[in-house]
Amino acid sequence: MRPLSLGPQRREVCPQAALRTASLHKWREVYPQRHLKCRQPNLRYGLGHNPPDIGWLLARYREARAALEAAGVGHVPCMNDTLAGNFMLNDRQEIMLVDFEYASNNDPFYELGLWFGEMFFPPEIEAELLEEYFGRLDPQIEARVWIGKALADMKWSTWAMVQSCVSKLDFDFHKYGVWKHMRARQVMHDPRWESWLRAV
């Protein structure tokens, strides 16, 4: 066993999401679309082309960021990659997490939102898990987790659009990114979005 080093405490909202957005802009600077040899060149939108509603999506991201920063954000060690495939279960029902490439200090509500989104838990299971984790369930907790879901999908959609042009893996990253954008829209279009922003 080794002691866990928390490292420097960063105060920005969901640093993983912010870093992925920044990395996309950097890639555009280094590889303008006319020079970029994308592995999937016939994309409706990709590294050099934003989805048609990118302005709306980024406006919602800025709303969420402002609300969370005003409320205050705590940071704890997070895995930041809670895919189902990163949970190993043995015959003794013991769980081991693998793949800590993206681990960092982050907002725990973002981590929970990411995990719930990847696992497709039904609402009653999400509620049960939140109550077990926090010892209670209230509108603020639910709001922060829902916002975390949207920010996580924004982050991974950005990551996927970069990967669609630079990765050598045989995987349709573009399709994955479009799907993640769609899920972020669903949360941000939810009629409860404004109330979630107020509740955080």
UniProtKB/TrEMBL annotation:
- GO CC list: cytoplasm
Source organism, top-level taxon:
Bacteria
* InterPro entries for the chain: Kinase-like_dom_sf
Gene3D superfamilies the UniProt entry points to: 3.90.1200.10
A Pfam family assignment: Choline_kinase
Q: Name one GO biological process term.
A: phosphatidylethanolamine biosynthetic process
According to the UniProt entry, the coiled-coil residues are: none
This entry's Gene Ontology molecular function terms read:
ethanolamine kinase activity
What is the protein name stated in its UniProt record? Thiamine kinase
